[in-house]
Amino acid sequence: MALSPASGPKVRKPLGRPQTPEELAFYARNFFRLSVVAVVFFPPLGLAGLYFSKQTDEANQCSDWEDAYRNSNRTVWVDMFSILTGIGLIYLYVLFI
């Protein structure tokens, strides 16, 4: 199956104008602080959360709402999994070592 030229990485273009109040109200949530906590508990997944948080911010700045909300959801899931994994590892370490 051949890849079409349009299936490459998505490049966001800056708007070149200020965003309207309606656009600003439509921003997807950026979970940067939660990503920092995730990095403390389990850095491999926490860094992925920081990456998705950055992608959310970039998509919000370019009014790419579909990508912004998708990356916001990814950020939350990766961060929560990272925190739970870190807590689980700490729990195992305290109980068995």
Automatic annotation (TrEMBL):
GO (cellular component) term, any one = membrane
Q: Give its localization.
A: Membrane
From what superkingdom does this record's organism come?
Answer: Eukaryota
**Single biological process term from Gene Ontology:** binding of sperm to zona pellucida
Which Pfam families does the UniProt entry name for this protein?
A: CD225 (PF04505)
InterPro entries with a match to the protein in the record: CD225/Dispanin_fam
Question: Where does this chain mainly localize?
Answer: membrane
Tell me if Hydrolase is a UniProt keyword of this record: no
Transmembrane segments in this chain: where? 31-52, 76-96
Q: Which UniProt keywords apply?
A: Membrane, Transmembrane, Transmembrane helix
Family designation:
Belongs to the CD225/Dispanin family.
Q: What name does UniProt use for this protein?
A: PMIS2 transmembrane protein
* Organism per entry: Nannospalax galili (Northern Israeli blind subterranean mole rat)
